[in-house]
């Protein structure tokens, strides 16, 4: 029985190399004069709402979109992302 589809790391050592995924929750575009006024406890409004999707990037390539969630159980309070869209191999969503 060929189980190579279930254990791809046997044939390719790169499958066990970790990558960093950046989660983008939004952007801010303050004027420089407003940026210079920021102090502790300042609030910087983003261009998105809490319920809007977040974007997942590897480098500068968009790989997926999802929704922020709070973990439960042993990881209560930790943020996570539930994927709602995943790019195909060509990288297009």
UniProtKB/TrEMBL annotation:
SUPFAM superfamilies assigned: Surface presentation of antigens (SPOA)
Record-linked InterPro entries: FliN-like_C (IPR001543), FliN/MopA/SpaO (IPR051469), FliN_T3SS_HrcQb (IPR001172), SpoA-like_sf (IPR036429)
GO biological process, one term: chemotaxis
Membrane topology according to the record: Peripheral membrane protein
Record key words, sorted: Cell membrane, Cell projection, Chemotaxis, Cilium, Flagellar rotation, Flagellum, Membrane
This protein's record includes keyword NAD: no
GO cellular component: bacterial-type flagellum basal body; plasma membrane
Record Pfam families: FliMN_C
Subcellular location: Cell membrane
Flagellar motor switch protein FliN-like C-terminal domain segment(s): 17-86
Gene3D superfamilies cross-referenced by the UniProt entry: SpoA-like (2.30.330.10)
Molecular functions (GO terms): cytoskeletal motor activity
Coiled coil: none
Entry similarity comment: Belongs to the FliN/MopA/SpaO family.
Protein name: Flagellar motor switch protein FliN
């Amino acid at each position: 029985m060929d189980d190579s589809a279930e254990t791809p790391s046997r044939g390719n050592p790169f499958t066990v190399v970790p990558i960093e995924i950046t989660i983008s929750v939004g952007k801010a575009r303050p004027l420089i004069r407003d940026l210079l006024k920021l102090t502790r406890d300042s609030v910087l409004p983003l261009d998105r709402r809490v319920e809007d999707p977040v974007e997942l990037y590897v480098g500068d390539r968009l790989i997926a979109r999802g929704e922020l969630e709070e973990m439960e159980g042993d990881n209560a309070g930790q943020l996570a992302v539930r994927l709602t869209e995943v790019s195909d191999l060509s990288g297009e969503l």
